[in-house]
Amino acid sequence: MKALLLALVLFTMLPRASAAQDTEVDLELVLMVDVSRSMSPQELELQRRGYAEALVSEDVFKAVQSGLLQTIALTYIEWAGTQEIIVDWRLIETRADLEDFASQLTVKFDTALRRTSISGALAFGASRLLRNDYAGLRRVIDISGDGPNNLGPRVTRERDRVLADGITINGLPLMTDDGFNPFFHLPDLDVYYTTCVIGGPGAFVIPVYDWPDFADAVRRKLVLEIAGITAAPKIIPAQTPQRDPRDCTVGEKIWQDFMENREFFVP
After folding, report:
1. In the predicted model, is pLDDT for residue 234 greater than 50?
2. What is the tens place of the pLDDT at every residue in 99-131?
3. Beta carbons of 38 and 147 less than 8 angstroms apart
4. Kind of pairing, strands 134-145 and 168-173?
5. Strand 72-79 relative to strand 168-173: parallel, antiparallel, unpaired?
6. Closest CA to 193 of 256, 251, 252
7. What distance in Å separates the CA atoms of residue 198 and residue 205, rounded to the nearest whole number?
8. Alpha carbon distance 219, 102 (integer Å)
9. What is the 3-state secondary structure (H, E, C) of the chain?
10. Predicted pLDDT of residue 116
11. pLDDT of 147 higher than 90
């Protein structure tokens, strides 16, 4: 009798299987969006509208419907030196889900100087994937940015940690040749992203050269990610040896040069 009572007590202490069960989805996708100080308020607004426009497109909905489970989990996070969750994890199954997610997007911009920590963004994105309530057939971090890493751990170190967890990293380098300070501009940023940032099965880079093309680039990127289509990364030969985009510490070197010569770059 005592043994039976003990077994009953132990059984009631066990978590219920249904409570511990993660929701199965085709894809867990983290959208990491650059809001560093090099981005102007106008560019931040273009980003917000571009993502919203892409998410409600017919192509993205069809991509969601093309999966085995016809459902994905999605979150939208802004990053610079730190990160902020703008839209937390949402289950996406219908057009209404996509429309509701898009309607929640906002851009919060202040005048504080914010550097670019791709490594911090990757680490944060991975933590959101490893600690959610979803079980995806694939897990992807989708990161945009207009410059190389210049704050925090080496980007290659964090990239390798993320890849070791079975997470794919795709890139959307913003190569529009404008922004807060041209001193931080890196020609062939897509080469840097290809060499130092992305990785994992089917990883790819889609560069953005002009802001009017941003929404279309986001739409194409989302379709590739959600449908699980492999795209070859775009690689362009380096043009400036002093800022070699294949040097994965080039961002830190640019920042060091800026700090050593900052009296020449006061607005």
Report:
1. no
2. 999 999 865 655 555 778 999 999 999 999 999
3. yes
4. parallel
5. unpaired
6. 251
7. 8
8. 13
9. CHHHHHHHHHHHHCCCHHHHCCEEEEEEEEEEEECCCCCCHHHHHHHHHHHHHHHCCHHHHHHHHCCCCCCEEEEEEEECCCEEEEEEEEEECCHHHHHHHHHCCCCCCCCCCCCCCHHHHHHHHHHHHHCCCEEEEEEEEEEEECCCCCCCCCHHHHHHHHHHCCCEEEEEEECCCCCCCHHHCCCCHHHHHHHHHCECCCCCECCECCHHHHHHHHHHHHHHHHHCCCCCCCCCCCCCHHHCCCCCCHHHHHHHHHHHCHHHCCC
10. 83
11. no
| Amino acid occupying residue 206 | I
Determine the Cα–Cα distance for residues 98 and 215; give it in Å rounded to an integer.
Answer: 15
- Low-confidence winner among 85-94, 114-123, 125-134, 252-261 (lowest mean pLDDT): 252-261
Tell me the backbone φ, ψ of residue 85, rounded to 5 degrees: -80, 120
| 92: its two tokens | 């996406």
Structure pTM?
0.80
Six token digits for residue 231: 């795209």
Q: Quote the CA–CA distance of 230 and 214 in Å, as a whole number.
A: 20
Whose tokens are 């996406």? That residue is 92
- Residue 188 — pLDDT band, cuts 50, 70, 90? confident
> Is-contact 255 150, C-beta < 8 A?
yes
| Tens-place pLDDT, residues 7-27 | 444 444 444 343 458 999 999
